[in-house]
From TrEMBL:
Coiled-coil residue spans: 280-311
GO BP term, example: regulation of Arp2/3 complex-mediated actin nucleation
InterPro entries the UniProt entry points to: AH/BAR_dom_sf, AH_dom, Arfaptin_fam
Name recorded for this polypeptide: ADP-ribosylation factor interacting protein 2b
Amino acid sequence: MTDSIMSKAATMEIPINSNGDTGTLPEDDSLEQDLQQVMVSGPNLNETSIVSGGYGGTAEGIIPTSSIKGPAVRYNAEFNKRIPVTGLGSNMHHSSSSSSMTAEELTRGVAVEKLETMKKWGLNTYKCTKQMISERFGRGSRTVDLELEAQIEVLRDTKRKYENVLRLARALTNHFYNMVQTQHALGDTFADLSQKSPELRDEFGYNAETQKLLCKNGETLLGAINFFVSSINTLVNKTMEDTLMTIKMYENARLEFDAYRSDLEELSLGPRDAVAMARIDAAQQQYQVHKEKYERLRSDVIIKLKFLEENKVKVMHKQLLLFHNAISAYFAGNQQQLEQTLKQFNIKLRPPGADKPSWLEEQ
């Protein structure tokens, strides 16, 4: 009960009589009811009063918190003084405002950079599209390198023909693989019938041995054909494709170069005032930049075409010799020559079931 009275005294004003005696306190039941209502509703911070210490103090010691403005204060009840707390709030406000300004400046800088990039891209796209349309309708001029363009056209035609060779070689591999699998199944069937048919044991046995030999030679030939297909695929879809990607970059650079060249020529035919001269100088700089890019990519294309031709001759000479020797040895029934051909080209056959993962890898 004493604790309830002290809690009540801490949250309310205690009336003081003129003679210094305190007024009559309410009964204990009313104190408990007031405490319950306070606990349910909760204090209102805007209406809370700070009471100065001592029962002999005056009403001036009651300071409503809603009237306190400005910097944070600490109230010393013993000496009836307010001690301002400075530094923390102002520093936090200053640091938060400076960090927000820095983030805003960074965001603004990124937005400006993106805007400039989009602006340059849009201007470049417009010029190139205009140049492309002018060339297509025969109104604009284009830079032509007859010798280089002839080599590029030969390369594209060669790639189309080699792709056809690759397609046919893959078809041959699939058909021959099916034939080898059929021979393997037929040999197993003959061997089984040789065991179950005593009157035809020798005949079934001869055919079983023949099919097994053909199956073995067929697997050896399949190894040679697969190596041939793999080499042609690398030549067509990697080496030639890499050169064609460089050619595409060269053609784009040529289009940009002609677009900025045409723009410079149009500006040169116009007036020669200060504004026009500034635009001509800027166009001259852009023209020089794209000219250097065009010449650099042109040199790259010439070098790659030269190396590609040398590599193509070397690879195809080896692969065509392999294909011829393997096919000839197989259909001649020369097993020794067929195996020698694979050794000559360092081709190693995979054992049956090598493509399947082991039981440990499947776990």
